[in-house]
């Protein structure tokens, strides 16, 4: 199995409604492909982890990278994994002003609880990037 982590920038006008559509598609498709992961959205950027059989992850990632709802897709990390770090599908939103921000943070840190230190470090760095994104 492999795991890919990428970031991208949402196109203008992409909002929570689009995210719900994406989530619906992801839930329906990813289980068919035996792919799990995590999708974070902070109203400007996406950060996604995809993990599963290499062929399936590559196929899905290729399809996702062509999606007009985002641009500047950058693969941050790709690694072989023996076990999944994100065993079920999850998605978290952060619109940047929600009062539940700390709740979201807690949720994310819980999701990262069982991940490797390198994955966690990558998330923390990226979360800082998210914060300072213009
Ligand atoms: C940031 C982002 C993440 C996405 N993640 C997934 C995903 O995990 N799984 C998925 O099937 N589609 C995902 N999509 C949607 C795909 O790009 C594409 O629209 C979808 O796979 C098309 O499915 P269909 O061929 O069944 O119509 C994502 C799109 C965006 C913009």
Q: What oligomeric state best describes the polypeptide chains here?
A: single chain
Low-confidence stretches: none
In one word, what is the shape?
Answer: globular
**Helicity level, as a percent range?**
40-55%
Rg (C-alpha, Å): 14 Å
Q: Name every ligand kind in the structure.
A: flavin mononucleotide
The beta-strand count equals 5
**Main beta sheet strand tally, sense and closure:** 5 strands, mixed
Summarize this structure as a short list of keywords or feature phrases.
5-stranded mixed β-sheet, alpha+beta, binds flavin mononucleotide, 134 residues
Please give a structural write-up.
With about 130 residues, the chain is an alpha+beta fold. The protein has a single domain (about 1-130), classed as Alpha-Beta Plaits (2-Layer Sandwich), CATH 3.30.70.100. The chain has helices at about 15-30, 55-65, 100-110, 115-130; strands at about 1-10, 35-40, 45-50, 70-80, 90-95. Strands 4-1-3-2-5 form a 5-stranded mixed β-sheet, with helices on both faces. About 20% of the residues are buried. The structure holds flavin mononucleotide (FMN). Flavin mononucleotide (FMN) binds near residues 22, 29 and 70.
């Amino acid at each position: 199995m492999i795991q890919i982590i990428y970031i991208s920038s949402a196109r203008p006008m992409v909002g929570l409604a689009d995210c719900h559509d994406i989530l619906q598609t992801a839930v329906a498709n990813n289980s068919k492909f035996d792919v799990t992961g995590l999708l974070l959205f902070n109203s400007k950027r996406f950060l996604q982890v995809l993990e599963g059989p290499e062929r399936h992850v590559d196929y899905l990632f290729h399809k996702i990278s062509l999606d007009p709802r985002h641009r500047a897709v950058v693969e941050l990390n790709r690694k072989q994994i023996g076990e999944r770090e994100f065993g079920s599908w999850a998605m978290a939103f952060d619109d940047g002003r929600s009062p539940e921000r700390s709740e979201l943070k807690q949720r994310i840190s819980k999701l990262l609880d069982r991940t490797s230190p390198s994955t966690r470090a990558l998330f923390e760095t990226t979360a800082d990037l998210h914060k300072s994104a213009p």
